[in-house]
């Protein structure tokens, strides 16, 4: 239903001047049910609007309030299809936003998506497509999830037991209570709170408490190194490697173990400097022969040497293939179900357009429905080409990201 509304409006899109101030702010983008399901916030409105964008938004609002909210069957995904359409329309404009929505709703939601895209469980809804890759310009990239490391936490207190069990928020509460009751332990508690927040992927809070710990004059050299490593790791989690450099460098002047060198190599690998990262890991491996750090560094150097030779798909080739034969670019990118759906949808509309044309080409008939059918077919074919380009780009991104995760998993146990 939503797709039909968007298709009809996209074919009649008209550009206009900027609307009066306040016409947008009075609209509520999310229905109450979606708010209860912790739907991500919509991207900020663009600096200039047009009639097509406003028409698209109002159609989506009407659909959410009048149809979607009354249906017993809720969209199982976060972000929902209608809210994805809203984000796409705001980011790309109505016509190109509709093409983005067709790509997501008609080509990427299929039985193969469980294999193609990382799906995460949600308490309110079932699964989530990796939409952040497709809408990175419209919303903040979520923090990188750094999984907690099951290492032995020193101490036998209640807070330490909670930390060992992974009950991070209760552990944080206990450490804050200890800071209030025993001010002499505040430095230790600040460090533990920062680590707990870091393990629970609350990186901004972890940076705040680790920075407070760095201001304490009673920090030992190793504690100061650990605090700098924690802050640097949190900035890595927030996709801010440029800020991680200074903290990893600061840790290097104090660290006697050599973990900071692994972190510097990780940073270099994240920036695509695989050869330099390989040299850094090799240097650590030579300096720590026979221990666990040296063994990890040796494995890391092997992974870094493989970085320049990761499998790669050309987006240009994918676009060319899908332009000639719908779905061929998706097949090239390894998404067979997406390819099948793109081929069936585009070819079906193409045959339907031809059938309408043959009916209307008789003398005395107008070609109005032929133009409508060709317009809809063009939207689906454009979405097919966009999907092919994104499939190849997503394949390359996943290969690189999975490789970096393997590097990350070898380094994290040494940080904590």
Number of domains: 3
Measured as a percent range, the helix fraction is: 55-70%
Described by strand count, sense and barrel closure, the largest sheet is:
none
Termini gap: 51 Å
Strand tally, please?
0
Can you give a write-up of this model?
The protein is mainly alpha-helical and 416 residues long. It has 19 helices and no strands. The chain has helices at residues 2-10, 32-36, 51-67, 81-92, 94-108, 113-116, 158-164, 168-181, 186-199, 203-214, 221-237, 241-252, 259-270, 274-287, 292-306, 315-324, 328-332, 336-360, 368-415. Helix 9 (186-199) packs antiparallel against helix 10 (203-214), helix 14 (274-287) packs antiparallel against helix 15 and helix 16 packs antiparallel against helix 19 (368-415). The longest helix is centred in the C-terminal third of the chain and has 48 residues, at 368-415. The two termini are 51 Å apart.
List keywords for this structure.
416 residues, mainly alpha, Serine Threonine Protein Phosphatase 5, Tetratricopeptide repeat, 64% helix
